[in-house]
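In response to reviewer comment 3 from the previous cycle, which asked for concrete evidence that the modeling workflow produces usable outputs, we include below a single protein chain processed end to end. The sequence was submitted unchanged, and the resulting structure tokens are shown without manual editing.
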Amino acid sequence: MKQGDLVTRKSYGGDIVFRIQRIEQDRAILCGVEYRLLADAPFTDLVPLNGAEDVDSPRYYAHQAVHSMRRLVQDRIRLHEKSPYASINKGQAGSYYFEVPGTVLHLDGDPMYLRKCMTLYEEMRIPAHGFYMQESQMADSLRRLLPTIKPNIVVITGHDGFVKNRRDMDVMSLSSYKNSSHFVRAVEVAREYERNRDSLTVIAGACQSHFEALLQAGANFASSPARVLIHALDPLLIASKMSFSSVKETVSMIDLMESTVTGLEGMGGVETKGSYRMGLPRLEKIEMPNSPA
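The workflow returned the following structure tokens.
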């Protein structure tokens, strides 16, 4: 086995597919393909996946993720049908409306997940700016990026989880988590920039993150209420839903969490209005008016 190979772990019943990120002596450092999980395991515990699909393809997702993406498309169709502009006589000049979805700033601690997310933002026509960086760098980077990009939605994610082999494990202490404290600081910076949760939607956390601390810091949505592993696309799915939800409406929390893969165990949050706007008119071609006689 070598770096880049796909494997599962015998000790966990092969429940999660990993890619070998690097090799350290007789152990492999593993990165989850679909779940935001970093792990390590001895080579004797690994089972190679031969002839596997190209999991780096943006079209490789769990069945639940595909279902969630389809729901987002259906929601967008319903949004168009509900528009008061949809019934305007299309024969009238310039009667078509135009759309202004919310802009996303996505910070990710994993380059593979970031590539997948950016491909999907593009496919869904969501204006998005993505940056890969270590979780510890996110707070300082936001101080520079927020006033430059001026997003409607910020995603702060990467890798997290409980610190291994702690005897004094306390799930309510930030010191028990690998990166939750970094995510909290990044959320605090976002709230220093914009305090209104309806003006700037903040989505924060990764696998097993300290949900309560992230919400208290000012996140609208965070992981992980039940301290479970979250799907790699869960933060993107919420950001996409908010980008194409009307600024006039508060998004249904149940509907929003049902659009994710891990549901209410993996993601939670507070009521928030969307970031999507419609406008008139959309001019395909501008013609100069006739000059007066």
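The longest strand covers residues 18-24. We consider this sufficient to address the reviewer's concern, and the full set will be provided in the supplementary archive.
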